[in-house]
Amino acid sequence: MDPPSTNLAAKRAGGLPKLRELLRRQRRDSDSQNDSPDLDFEYEDADKYATEISELYSYTEEVEFSLAQKSFEEDYHSREDKKWTEIDFEARRMHVVHLLNNVDVAKRDQRMKAARAILYLAQGNFGEVSCEEEQMEWTRKNCFLIYECGALNVFVELLCLEAGNLVAATTALRKPAVSIVDSSDLRVILSLLYIMVETLRRKDSSRDSEEEMKLRTNLQCEIGQPIREDDSLAIILFNMVTKFCSGHAPHFPIKKVLLLLWKVILFSLGGLHDHQILKDKTRELLGLPTLIEDSVQITKNLRAVSPPASAVDMLDLQGRKGNRPPPLKRVRFIYLT
User: Fold this and answer.
1) Labelling 1: which of 18, 51, 229, 240 has CA 20 to 30 A away?
2) For position 331, what pLDDT does the model report?
3) Is the pLDDT of residue 325 over 80?
4) What pLDDT is recorded for position 329?
5) CA Rg, the chain, in Å?
6) With helix as H, strand as E and coil as C, how does the chain read?
7) Can you give the pTM of this predicted structure?
8) Helix axis angle, 151-163 relative to 184-201, nearest 10°?
9) CA neighbor of 234 nearest in space, from 186, 202, 203, 267
């Protein structure tokens, strides 16, 4: 009878060919993926303006556009007979101040109606324009006006108020599944902040006036500083992500939270090109040689590849050869290196 150590060594030696075959098969699968077409992806901080704005919405929110338009028109036409596009700048500014004052009232319905009216202006008062280019132009004008009137602080305070609503969080926790209705007020606030930040951060030397460039610089400085108590807007949004991930606030519209968080970080800290310039200046100050290679340009030219198989995937493949039933199918994600 063979000793146990001899049997164990024989079993290990018998498993080596199987492992080699598994690695060869994995290598063949990886090589075959190189024949597939590359991903159509542009490695940049952001896409075109219209694409970035459309990314904010889903098809289920279509009915809320008409609700925002109705909220604006009911209040505006009770004070003014002309269209929004026909009145002068001072009249528009006075009406925005009037709406922001209504956002500070105690009654929830009146407060959110004013917030939806301001959101309609940020969306380019689409009910009075005839084409997309005209709507984008009014979005730009209105967003600069809304920020100039102090909308950032008002809506950040409103965001903190709604995010800390314990009644809404408790109600959402008791439901078997949350719906889009549970986050209607939060989505109005986040959408307004997202459109305002994304619109003001984009530079256009052919259209920017001195006042607009000054407002953009002020927003960039203000958005990175503490706005409420000792927290900046990015910290407030990070806290919302933490609450959502911990399960304490399942009604948070996490997609809008993450999109706004990315725009805030991008605007306050700068993008890839800003970091490259800062890195070159820092190397120059420290007396280091300038880098010839541009890491951003190199990354843009890299081909999208699949990550190597993990140990769990290899064990799954090994288990399929035995008598055990196949495990649940894993979803493979292709990412860019």
Assistant:
1) 18
2) 44
3) no
4) 47
5) 27
6) CCCHHHHHHHHHHHHHHHHHHHHHHHHHHHHHHCCCCCCCCCCCCCCCHHHHHHCCCCHHHHHHHHHHHHHHHHHHCCCCCCCCCCCCHHHHHHHHHHHHHHHCCCCHHHHHHHHHHHHHHHCCCHHHCCCHHHHHHHHHHHHHHHHHCCHHHHHHHHHHHHHCCHHHHHHHHHCCCCCHHHHHHHHHHHHHHHHHHHHHHCCCCCCCCHHHHHHHHHHHHHHCCCCECCECHHHHHHHHHHHHHCCCCCCCCHHHHHHHHHHHHHHHHCCHHHHHHHHHHHHHHCCCCCCCCCHHHHHHHCCCECCCCCHHHHHHHHHHHCCCCCCCCCCCCCECC
7) 0.78
8) 150
9) 267
d(CA 177, CA 183): 13
What phi and psi, each to the nearest 5 degrees, are found at residue 335? -125, 165
82: left (phi over 0), alpha (psi -120 to 50) or beta: beta
Q: How far apart are CA 49 and CA 133, in angstroms?
A: 11
CA 324 to chain centre: 42
Better-scored residue on pLDDT, 55 or 39:
55
